[in-house]
Amino acid sequence: MPNGKTVLIVMGVSGSGKSRIGKLLSEKLSRPFFDGDDFHPEANVKKMSAGSPLNDEDRKGWLVALNKLAVEHKDKGAIIACSALKKNYRSLLRAGMGNCMEFVYLDGSFELIKSRLEQRKGHFMPLNLLKSQFDTLEPPSKAITVSIDETPAKVVKSIIKKLND
Ligand SMILES: Nc1ncnc2c1ncn2[C@@H]1O[C@H](COP(=O)(O)OP(=O)(O)OP(=O)(O)O)[C@@H](O)[C@H]1O
Ligand SMILES: O=C(O)[C@H](O)[C@@H](O)[C@H](O)[C@H](O)CO
After folding, report:
1. Hey, whose CA ends up nearest to atom 10 of ligand 2?
2. CB of 90 within 8 A of CB of 40?
């Protein structure tokens, strides 16, 4: 992994492309991919499916689980998709990782992401939670930031270029 950043957290609001871009990036970098969605307790998935946003308390255990996963992959490396919307969530994710963790922020407008979510099928996250995702988001100041208004291949290329800079 470039720069010794072994664990990359691909972050952003729902529908920003964390799963799609994260998987592609993991193939290019030959690192395992983990989707944060798969680590939510059932209660969280039920809550989101019912149209209610998660609160700090709901997210705490989930973030701790993803931090554990990151620490376990500190040597071998991994790509983890996680919304990581707030600064203090990112601190929780980084615990024990220091400089080995890097955040990759998928930056896009409400309108662009809304239009992609309208096309997406078979996912528990309802479109009406997108506004609360943006309201909760504290955009990171220290992250590799890429515009998602490009094809997935171009987005990944741009991430890899920035990782190598
Ligand atoms: N750069 C892109 N260009 C076109 N479509 C994209 C791009 N990135 C993602 N998509 C599509 O947009 C939709 C949302 O992407 P994806 O499911 O990866 O987002 P996500 O951030 O993982 O969402 P969630 O947090 O809700 O799981 C998907 O249908 C995906 O295929
Ligand atoms: O922090 C959150 O509100 C959640 O993590 C959501 O972002 C979902 O996990 C995901 O985006 C839906 O698929």
Report:
1. 14
2. no
